Amino acid sequence: MYLVDALHLRILRLLRDEGAVSRAELGDRLELTRPRLLAEVERLITAGLIAEAGMAASRGGRRSTLVEIHPRLRFAAVDLGASSIDIEVVNGRLEPVATYREAADIRSGPKVILQRVNELLAKARIDGAYERLDAVGIGVPGPVSFRDGVPVSPPIMPGWDRYPVRELLAREHSCPAVVDNDVNIMAIGERHGGVAHSVDDFLFVKIGTGIGCGIHLAGTVFRGVDGCAGDIGHIQVDANGPVCSCGNAGCLEALFSGAALARDALAAARAGESPALAERLAGRLAGGEELTARDVAEGAAEGDVTCIRLIREGGRRVGGVLATLVSFANPSMIVIGGGLAQLGHVLLAEIRSVVYRRSLPLATGNLPVVLSELGGRAGVTGAAVLASDMAFEQAS
């Protein structure tokens, strides 16, 4: 086992994130003497982590050799949602070489879901995406003990509590594996390649089947002692509200999430409060389908007053919770992602309005509240970053 030290991690991350760099430029940026640099680069080449990539342009003297992250490296990035599986196999630059997405019910249990993950990764290998994986990163929609690599009491994941996800994936693919909460990997993805690329302190808020918050402080994710930091979906916002999946009443998630919005949309359609929703419901009853958040988004785009009201009410609730977090953490950006980000600028405007109105001017004077740039790819991007970091730290 070849353990990579802090200097090697800096070199590997730089080449991963920026591409091929000359030895001379690498030495300048890391402030290393030429003999030290050559020795460290040679160690990484011998370890199979980086490779030479031709000659650099002349800087006035002898041309330096380019080095790059090794083109053979492959990482698997898995983003499990409540109703979907997203997988990318990426190269050392975290560029996708194979992509798979399909519907799945997380309530099917870990054996069914992870078996399907393994089947899709096996398909990628058969299709030529990789010969062997160097690491696997996976996000799951519930609290995770990052240290132990297991979900812990996840409200919407029956059968997953303390299931050895990391251990099983590592054994199946003969490589290191890392497990994190889905919102954390989305925050990492947005920091790596999205709107928060140059931001060290920000909140990533996922609004989908559930609601969670990735807390990125001082350039790294804050997970808390037991891995459940940012679980804002279970903050109580109405003591008299509906019972949440966690067993408590009036949680934010119970009042505004994908399931809650679908529930409220169905009630509005049946009560005749929304012509747009009633029309959509009537067209689906024969097929046994009900309404979704997308129906609300489409109705709002058509100007349906009830759809707009449902979105604004949800935005006000989310904004109220975020205003408290802004006063507490003083982030420099808030990024909104997840499936309900499709509700667009009606939702975003309401969240902004509440955050700016209820937080101190000092905390919001330079606080952008924006939609995710990566959208559905935020999770797999973050999982790939985590997988590559794990591979670099445990390189063999």
Automatic annotation (TrEMBL):
Claim: Kinase is one of the keywords in the record: yes
Lineage per the UniProt record: Bacteria, Bacillati, Actinomycetota, Actinomycetes, Micromonosporales
Record family assignment: Belongs to the ROK (NagC/XylR) family.
Protein name: Sugar kinase
GO molecular function, one term: kinase activity
UniProt entry keywords in alphabetical sequence: Kinase, Transferase
Pfam families in the record: HTH_24 (PF13412), ROK (PF00480)
Cited InterPro entries: ATPase_NBD (IPR043129), ROK (IPR000600), ROK_cs (IPR049874), WH-like_DNA-bd_sf (IPR036388), WH_DNA-bd_sf (IPR036390)
